[in-house]
Amino acid sequence: MRFVIRSDRQVVVAFEPTAAEYVLEPGATVAVEWFGEREDGMVSLEAGKFVIAAPTAGYIRAWDRDGVEIYIGPESGPDAQ
Questions:
Q1: Each residue of 2-13: pLDDT tens digit?
Q2: CB 53 within 8 A of CB 61
Q3: Are 18 and 73 in contact (CB under 8 A)?
Q4: Which of 6, 8, 52, 61 is the most exposed place for a label (fewest CB within 10 A)?
Q5: What is the Cβ-side half-sphere exposure of residue 11, based on CA atoms within 13 angstroms?
Q6: How many angstroms separate the CA atoms of 79 and 38, rounded?
Q7: What does the alpha-carbon distance between residue 30 and residue 3 come to, in Å, rounded to a whole number?
Q8: Which residue pairs, CB below 8 angstroms and at least 24 apart, start in 37-44?
Q9: φ and ψ of 74, to 5 deg
């Protein structure tokens, strides 16, 4: 599943289960993709943080508005397949 996050205010995006965080500036976007056999990932707003949880036995990759991948765990980043 792929989706885009955009906010009208600064918000911290937290990626679970790695607990990686990314500060999303107002008007900026983050493209997110879930990988895994199940599509039971979760998206929620908790205590001022936008939390994205990977699907069971899956993982997440994300890119900023310039297309640069955000490192959020071993399955992400420039060395990911």
A1: 999 998 999 999
A2: no
A3: yes
A4: 8
A5: 22
A6: 24
A7: 8
A8: 39/1, 41/1, 43/3
A9: -60, -20
Digit-coded pLDDT (tens) for 29-73: 999 998 888 888 999 998 879 999 999 988 899 999 999 999 998
The one-letter amino acid code at 76 reads: S
User: Are 66 and 74 contacting, i.e. CB atoms less than 8 angstroms apart?
Assistant: no
Q: What is the 3-state secondary structure (H, E, C) of the chain?
A: CEEEEECCCCEEEEEECCCEEEEECCCCEEEEEEECCCCCCEEEEECCEEEEECCCCCEEEEEECCCCEECCCCCCCCCCC
Using CA atoms, how far apart are residues 54 and 56, in angstroms rounded to an integer? 7
Dihedral over alpha carbons 20, 11, 30, 39 (to 10 degrees):
70
